[in-house]
Write a structure and sequence with these properties.
The protein has four helices and four strands, in the order H-H-E-H-E-E-H-E. It is an alpha+beta fold.
Length: about 140
């Protein structure tokens, strides 16, 4: 019986400790002292144009300069990648050169709208079915 009482006492003390521990310390403990929590989005842009042709390097650069960069002027990263996907209509695997744009940002309605505007603009301008979006939360320090 005494063991059970001791156990209950330890549990109560532990719960009280958790309740009094500052929430800000819990949130910041996931990042190093100098780090901050930021959202990361990766956008994948296929370069094949339906019906033939490709988004040429100068055309891609113009899209980057006029559509993406103005919405995220603090910076971004771009990778040249190769990808593949299965065409649902023909059941064939399609390989294509692509660009992956990675953006770190503070989550806000404005930033989310900017990301969706970029996706919509690319799909419209280059007759794309989709622009894949991959989201994460990261600890970032500069």
């Amino acid at each position: 019986m005494k063991t059970l009482s001791n156990f209950i006492c330890v549990v109560v003390i532990f719960i009280l400790f958790l309740l009094t521990f500052p929430q800000s310390n819990l949130a910041s403990s996931s990042c190093p002292v100098e780090g901050q929590t930021m959202s990361k989005v990766e956008l994948y842009f296929g370069l094949n144009i339906p019906g033939g042709g490709k988004v040429e390097p100068l055309v891609w650069q113009k899209f980057l300069d006029n559509v993406i960069s103005p919405r995220f002027p603090d910076g971004l990263s771009i990778d040249k990648i190769s990808g593949q996907w299965r065409d649902a209509k023909t059941d064939k695997t399609i390989q294509e050169e692509s660009r992956m744009v990675m953006i770190l940002y503070k989550r806000s309605a404005k930033a989310e709208q900017a990301i969706e505007d970029i996706r919509a603009a690319y799909k419209s301008q280059f007759q794309q079915d989709s622009v894949m979006r991959l989201d994460e939360i990261n600890c970032v320090s500069f």
